[in-house]
Amino acid sequence: MCDKGSMAQYTRVSGFVGLITLQNPPVNALSAAVRQGIVDMVERALSDPIVKSVVICGQNGNFCGGADIKEFGTNMSGPPLVPMIDAIEAANKPVVAAIEGSALGGGLELALGCHYRIAHSKARLGLPEVTLGLLPAAGGTQRLSRLIGVPAALNLITTGIHVTAAQALQLGIVDQVTDHNAVEVAVTFSLSVAGQSMDARRISTYPCPLPSDFDALFEGVMQKVRQSARGAIAPVACVQAVRAAATLPYTKGMEREQELMATLFTSGQARAQQYCFFAQRAVGRWRMPSGARWETSKPMPVHKAAVIGLGTMGRGITVALAQTGLSVVAVETQEKQLMEAKQAVSGMLERGAKRHGVAPMLDRISYSQNIQAVAEVDLVIEAVFEDMALKTEVFQQLSAVCKPGTLLCTNTSALDVDKLASEMPNPELVVGMHFFAPAHVMKLLEVVYGPRSSPQAVATAMQLGKKMGKVSVAVGNCRGFVGNRMLMPYLQQAFFLLEEGATPELVDRALEEFGFPMGVFRMSDLSGLDIGWRVRKRDELVEPDMASGQSARIRQGSRYSPLGDLLCEQGRFGQKTGQGWYRYDKPGSRVARSDPWLHSFLVEYRARHGLVPRSIDHQEVLERCLYALINEGFRILEDGIAAGPEDIDVIYVFGYGWPRHRGGPMFYASMVGLAKILERLEHYQQAHPDVPYLQPSSLLRRLVASDSPPIHRWREVIKKYQSQL
Ligand SMILES: CCCCCCC[C@H](O)CC(=O)SCCNC(=O)CCNC(=O)[C@H](O)C(C)(C)COP(=O)([O-])OP(=O)([O-])OC[C@H]1O[C@@H](n2cnc3c(N)ncnc32)[C@H](O)[C@@H]1OP(=O)([O-])[O-]
Ligand SMILES: NC(=O)c1ccc[n+]([C@@H]2O[C@H](COP(=O)([O-])OP(=O)(O)OC[C@H]3O[C@@H](n4cnc5c(N)ncnc54)[C@H](O)[C@@H]3O)[C@@H](O)[C@H]2O)c1
Q1: ipTM of this predicted complex?
Q2: Shortest CA distance to 159 belongs to which of 204, 127, 116?
Q3: CA distance 321 to 325
Q4: Do 635 and 578 sit in the same domain of this protein?
Q5: Are residues 343 and 248 located together in one domain of the fold?
Q6: Which of 556, 584, 608 is the last residue of a domain?
Q7: Neighbouring C-beta atoms of residue 652, cutoff 10 Å
Q8: Measured from the CA of 109, which atom of ligand 1 is nearest?
Q9: pTM, whole model, 2 decimals?
Q10: Range of the domain at 562
Q11: What family does the entry list (predicted)?
């Protein structure tokens, strides 16, 4: 009664039920072999006169993670999904989906073709195709809209969110939720409906319930989607497909779904987003130049953690740790700061708990003004001011107070983690855990290792990051690590463009049209101009505004723009002071308005320095800012600070607002063409010979000389290049 050769196993259970089990670990993706297996096994079950009903489930407590994304770039063979699902729906015996684990994308579409859906209470369901630059093209847009109505379907399909079994029941996606074995419940249920007509259970035959404010609804959703999509085409196509479900008969709607999918499927955006999907998973398989790697490095258990310094970052980190289920000791020396932090942390936890319908983890946190309180913790995250002397002092105190083996992590943005480690008795226990603000929200974590960091320390920080729901990327130690280091040439080019004739509005518009949520100047206003100013002062780059002409714009032999310093000297720190590159109605206000003062200031500045303004277009803004940033990315790969282009891309997509549909800076470079990037960098370098960041990196030259291999083969070239150094 069992066919074991196929990727869909067939068994007869309870005498009369054909049980089809998808078998394609780890997520039972619908590869060609699985689809063939389903087609064959469904046919077998329907033609077997003893079989009264059919149950479809997935192996190892996991229903199905959808179409096999790895097949997308290949010549797809095997039976197509749509007729396979149609055949299931048309069956004259009841077919029940037993959903455990996840039913996502094509997996949920398969379940929607079944006559009933029974889910385990821990199951998750969704149509996440939009996050891969696609739409649910196996009938998902047409069936889900008919089943749960247009507004709810639009929400699920355009965002790609996963819903819990309880939410799915409430929405009407599943018929029953159980805490017991979902397959057994489905088998019993299928027998209870055996022999009944399934006519009323075929979703494709349902009329699509139309909301009364139909046109207004679609117009509103389309507007919202276009705004948040920032140039991504998949969310727009998703809305169009649901609209087809609402306005066309099923077969016509399906044709529209296929048409829209065909456009998306071959678009560069889908390739970029699917690259991001795999890159996000690839960064978990980290390796260090020493040869240490993820598979062979065992993380230490972390039950209790401490946070030192409860400013902007410390508060967010405390919240994120508590939400992960850890006990947290939060230490802040300033009484006033401590009181404010307590209130802020409780507020963040309460709001988070309300959103997720869970209890706030307030009792997981104990507060103290005394560093002695951290004696028993397994891991400490330091988030005091960005000052090497202070951080060294705090680390020395920690080394004296903490139990042996406690991992010491710093949240520094740019200080030398290895130098900090070298001052400690146990440098192998020191790593950077570079969170991004707000730390309980932002998904990115850079785990910074130095030559002395032990693989176990890196493994522990990486695992903790994952538990905190972060996308953690292991990177080497250098000024600014990966993200902030690449930001330097980007910011520098933006300043130079202002000197040469651009306005903040023009530069920001070009970057926002490219897909960044905020241009560089709006972003600087939000994060505070004083942060960079303090760093430049420490680096002795800031000079009194006395001189004029070119010499005033040279520091340490290279071109330098003092524009940011001049604004700070006027007290223009951005949103918090109500003035920066833009003006705001009041300090703290978020709406950036053009500032005539700034424009006159730029005119006067250019005149004083003998700069003749010229007209600058969007193309130049993108090339200067983005290619300089990409060039630094190649240098980072050259130096072995990032293990591969995926690491850089994940950092930029999750930490810096790089549009996902453009895949990350290094993927974008591979799409533009490395030869073109090199040619444009050479062009700009000739025009600006005093800007070292525009000098093309040797690795970029090497890749172009090697016929610009596809991005998945860059690592081979990098390895060869490094071995020759
Ligand atoms: C014209 C053509 C028409 C076609 C019609 C298509 C219609 C359909 O609508 C399209 C789709 O279904 S689109 C699909 C829509 N579905 C989705 O978007 C769901 C995508 N998957 C997920 O969201 C998560 O994997 C789960 C939540 C399922 C599990 O999370 P977790 O437990 O944290 O596990 P994890 O670490 O995430 O993954 C483990 C391993 O499995 C791998 N892998 C996973 N799914 C895969 C797949 N579908 N495929 C291949 N591989 C897949 C993953 O790469 C990793 O392997 P690696 O070697 O380490 O890289
Ligand atoms: N703010 C950001 O966007 C951001 C992003 C990533 C990393 N960082 C880094 O995180 C660290 C903290 O930044 P922040 O913005 O949260 O600073 P912050 O000024 O908001 O807070 C620092 C806190 O540390 C406290 N503190 C100082 N000395 C202490 C000591 N010895 N013991 C306990 N507490 C002490 C201060 O009283 C203050 O409350 C810095 O290294 C910064 O570079 C900041």
Answers
A1: 0.96
A2: 127
A3: 7
A4: no
A5: no
A6: 608
A7: 28
A8: 9
A9: 0.95
A10: 502-510+517-608
A11: In the C-terminal section; belongs to the 3-hydroxyacyl-CoA dehydrogenase family.
